[in-house]
Write a structure and sequence with these properties.
Strand order of the largest sheet of chain B: 1-2
Shape of chain A: globular
CATH class of chain B: Mainly Alpha
Order of helices and strands of chain A: HEEHEHEHEHEHEHEHEHEHEHHHEEEE
Number of domains of chain A: 2
Number of domains of chain B: 1
CATH topology of chain B: ABC transporter involved in vitamin B12 uptake, BtuC
Oligomer: heterodimer
Low-confidence stretches of chain A: 17-40
Mean pLDDT of chain A: 88
CATH architecture of the largest domain in chain A: 3-Layer(aba) Sandwich
Order of helices and strands of chain B: HHHHEEHHHHHHHH
Structural class of chain A: alpha/beta
Chain lengths: 420, 294
């Protein structure tokens, strides 16, 4: 009897764990409606598979991506779906693990036979995932795998709808180089996580700045697993560079540097981070109100982007999740753009045949997305957009560089004091 | 590298080590009294941070006074965890099985936190968190000084409780020989339950220190657990003072290597040092045989 009670309790625990794990790791339509079909025949729903980082290091980005995919599905279904088929999402969680993402795409394509797949979040996960899709001959349209590692892999099926990240810092670096010599920073420090998304961006910017006479006083690479940023941030603040460039992939990294800089009474004239400040309200919550002001971040899109479909998507997002345009994570737009580009390819080819979709996307056609135009080169990079640089000004993330873009707010330089 | 930078790295390492000692104290205490390897410790630190966040952001209760609420709440959670999960593990293979059981607990905590708070990062805020004091050419952040001070006070209190009180003797007797402890009238189950409750309650303070120095979300515990386990193994499983010494040692090594050489090599050098120490003293700096005999 006692053993039965123990067994019952054990079962209850296992069930509770399973339910919670399921709550956190799977969502959206989970049905398998694909069947591997590649034609547009029949009238049943079409299932699109995706692996997203709903837990782990990229969970904030992964869940923002999920919202972007879901918003697009909602809008596309309202317009009649794809070739008359309503769309269902089949989302699996990869826990931010490169090993799990491989397993997930094998399941989505090989077992669930989803006829179309979308990309995961991050360059780190896109590369192994795209290789799986390539083995099955699937088109791999993605929005957050823009690192050089993806395009240097020789894959023919990858299409990144966002701006290639290699040149993310170029716009900013050129702006700094263009400043009058009396205003231009004299010194710069660079610290970056060894991630395939962010590390390749740093040398490109560093070479532009050094050519403009900005002397490098510190350059550090740190592992993604680091949990204590204090020594690196303190070393930067001790070097007191005029300009600090941080190669980051998430909010905690930027937040740790910000708080250490404040504690060390160091305020650079300019501070740019490759990712983190683009996370809207989440970023402000982490660094503290007012501390976000003056920080730059490169990106291809922002919540205030003046484009009709972008503004409509932002309104829908706010209606569903609340907040302001500044709170909308750029990941949402990247994911939404994936759906838009895929829809245009399916409609143009009038087919779900992946080989036709790949051929169409490589044809040099210019497509539309909430982030702007999309045109792929032979590697799958989007060549139709330029990187913009955004800056937090008075509590809002605004587009500031290039200054020639309509509606751009002039950069605040030097950066205002912390809390200002 | 200048001598000033080296000294700054050592100071940073000592102060940050205090924060890590706070987070690791509960882990080593629970192992010391239960032979339970609590894989859920990282998740509990994050839970403690969220409790502080809720009290501060939603109820307007400042962080430090809020500990008067979060510590008892975590104590109750610890008692519940011992009763529901740890007690069910067979005595004979407790250490090994506890890894699976506490991993399930970690998933439970993470799931509940994700449901309640989502995955967006948050951080604890108070005026003193971004302030520092200038001493001998160094800016010492108040939050790390507070964390270090709390670590010293708590570890002294825990040490006194375990080795200088009747309850502490009962705890150690329960672990050394359950049958003998029963025979001399110690309520072993109750003693262990309270001890685990205290271990988890201490983690509330660690959660405060972690949340004030790091942006966190429900998944942040995974990054912590390997570090915390390394600290308690180096310090000697079950040793309160060992946790403090090992945390300071680990962070000083980490920070000096990061500054003098490269942050990329910092974890490798620490784990290399860990292997060297364990090859000489397999029981850690303050091994458990010594711990229980004190």
């Amino acid at each position: 009897m006692k053993q039965l009670r123990l067994l019952a309790r054990a079962c209850a625990v296992v069930v509770a764990v399973a339910v919670l794990a399921a709550c956190g790791s799977s969502s959206g339509g989970s049905s398998n409606g694909g069947g591997g079909g590649s034609s547009s025949g029949g009238s049943g729903p079409i299932t699109i598979g995706a692996s997203l980082s709903l837990s782990g290091d990229f969970s904030a980005d992964g869940q923002a991506f999920q919202r972007g995919y879901e918003l697009w599905v909602h809008d596309q279904n309202a317009k009649g779906g794809l070739l008359g088929h309503q769309i269902k999402l089949d989302v699996l969680s990869d826990a931010s693990s490169p090993a799990q993402v491989v397993s997930n795409y094998q399941n989505l394509i090989g077992s669930s036979h989803d006829p179309i797949v979308f990309g995961p979040f991050s360059t780190l996960l896109t590369l192994p995932a795209a290789r799986v899709a390539a083995r099955y001959g699937y088109a791999f349209v993605e929005g957050a795998g823009g690192g050089p590692a993806v395009f240097g892999s020789g894959l023919h099926n990858v299409f990144d709808v966002s701006v290639p990240v290699k040149d993310n810092l170029v716009t900013f670096a050129r702006w700094v180089a263009s400043l009058p010599a009396s205003q231009r920073p004299k010194t710069a420090a660079y610290a970056t996580v060894n991630d395939p998304f962010t590390q390749p961006q740093i040398p490109v910017a560093q070479s532009i700045l050094e050519a403009a006479g900005v002397r490098t006083v510190l350059s550090k690479v740190f592992p993604a697993e680091v949990t204590d940023y204090t020594p690196i941030a303190t070393q930067v603040s001790s070097a007191k560079p005029d300009l600090f460039i941080l190669g980051s992939v998430d909010v905690p990294t930027v937040s740790a540097f910000v708080h250490t800089f404040i504690q060390q009474h160091y305020n650079p004239k300019a501070f740019i981070a490759t990712a983190g400040p683009d996370q809207g309200a989440t970023f402000v919550k982490a660094v503290g109100n007012g501390n976000e002001n003056g920080i730059f971040v490169p990106n291809g899109w922002f919540g205030g982007f003046k484009k009709a479909d972008s503004q409509k998507m932002v309104q829908e997002y706010i209606a569903k999740y609340g907040g302001t345009p500044s709170d909308v994570n750029a990941d949402v737009a990247e994911a939404y753009s994936v759906g838009q580009v895929l829809a245009q390819a399916v409609q143009a080819t009038h087919s779900f045949d992946n080989s036709k979709i790949i051929a169409y996307l490589h044809s040099g056609v210019t497509l539309n997305s909430v982030q702007g135009p999309v045109k792929f080169d032979s590697l799958g990079e989007n060549t139709a957009q330029q990187t913009l640089t955004f800056q937090w000004q008075n509590g809002n993330l605004v587009q500031s560089i290039p200054t020639s873009v309509a509606g751009a707010s002039p950069p605040q330089y030097p950066k205002p004091p912390w809390g200002g | 590298m200048s001598g000033t930078a080296l000294l700054q790295a050592i100071v940073d390492g000592i102060l940050t080590g205090g924060v890590y000692a706070l987070m690791a104290a509960g882990l080593t205490l629970i192992f010391g009294v239960m032979d339970i390897i609590n894989i859920a410790q990282g998740a509990m630190v994050v839970l403690g941070a969220y409790l502080s966040y809720e009290l501060s952001a939603k109820a307007g209760i400042p962080l430090l006074p809020g500990l008067l609420i979060t510590v008892p709440v975590m104590f109750v959670l610890g008692v519940g965890m011992e009763f529901l999960f740890m007690r069910r593990v067979r005595e004979a293979d407790r250490a090994a099985m506890s890894i699976l059981v506490t991993f399930a607990v970690a998933i439970l905590i993470e799931g509940v936190l994700t449901r309640a708070f989502g995955v967006d990062y948050v951080q604890l805020h108070a005026t003193y968190i971004d302030r520092s004091i200038y001493v001998l050419g160094f800016y010492l952040p108040w939050i790390y000084l507070i964390g270090f001070g709390l670590a010293v006070v708590l570890l002294v209190v825990l040490y006194w409780m375990l080795y200088r009180t009747q309850f502490g003797r009962a705890v150690r007797a329960s672990l050394q020989n359950r049958t003998a402890a029963d025979l001399i009238g110690i309520n072993v189950d109750r003693t262990r339950m309270i001890a685990v409750g205290i271990g988890v309650a201490v983690t509330a303070v660690g959660g405060f220190a972690f949340g004030a120095t790091n942006a966190f979300n429900p998944n942040s515990g995974y990054d912590l657990i390997s570090r915390l386990l390394a600290i308690v193994i180096l310090g000697g499983l079950g040793s309160i003072g060992g946790a403090m010494a090992a945390a300071v040692f680990m962070l000083v090594v980490n920070d000096v290597v990061a500054v003098a050489w490269s942050p990329t090599w910092a974890p490798m050098v620490f784990f290399f040092a860990l292997v060297i120490v364990l090859s000489i003293r397999p029981q850690g700096l303050f091994g458990r045989s010594g711990v229980r005999a004190q």
